[in-house]
Amino acid sequence: MMDWLTQLWQQIVSGLQSVEWSSWGAWTLTLTLLTLGALGTVVPFLPGPLLIFFAAVVHTLLRPQSGLSAAGLILLGLLVVAAYFIDGASGAMGARWFGASRWGMLGVVVGGLVGLFFSLPGILLGPLIGGFAFEMLFAKKSLKPAARSTWGTVVGTGVGMVARVVIACVMLGVFFIDALWW
Fold this sequence. Notes:
By secondary structure, the chain is mostly helical. It has helices at 3-17, 21-40, 48-62, 70-97, 102-115, 119-137, 143-181. Helix 2 (21-40) packs antiparallel against helix 3 (48-62), helix 3 packs parallel to helix 7 and helix 6 packs across helix 7 (143-181).
C-alpha cells in the first residue's frame, strides 16, 4: 500500500531536482512585472506600458535564450512612446474636436500637469478644470461653449485610455510571441 506513495514521492523529488530554478525565478519576475504593467494601464500612478517594456528588457537580460529579439524590443519601445503620446494628447485632441480654442487646449495641458500634484482627484479633474477655466478666462467663451469643450476633454481622455489599454494588449502579445515562438 505504501509502495505507490513512496514511488510518487521519489518521482516528485527527482522532478524537483531536475528543475532549472533560475528559469522559474526569471519567469516569475517577468510575469509579475507584466501583470503590474497590465494593471497599470488602468490604475493611476502605475506606468503600465513602461512596466511591460521593463519586463521585456529584464527577461531578455535574465534569460537570453528565451529573451526578445532586437526587433521585438524596438517594437515595444515604439509602442511605449505611442502609448504615452496618445495618453498625453488625447484630452487636448478631444477638447479641440468639441470646439476648444487654443487657450482651452493649453488649459487642458496645464490642468493635467498641475493635477499631478493633487493625487487621483487632481489627475482626473485637473485637465477638466484647466480647460474650462482657460476657455472662460482667456478665450472669453460663455458657459455653454466652454462646457462643450470640457466635455470633449472627457471624451478624448476616455478614448486615450482605451487606446492605452489596446496598446498594452498589443505589447503583451508582442512579448509572448517573441519570447515563446521566435
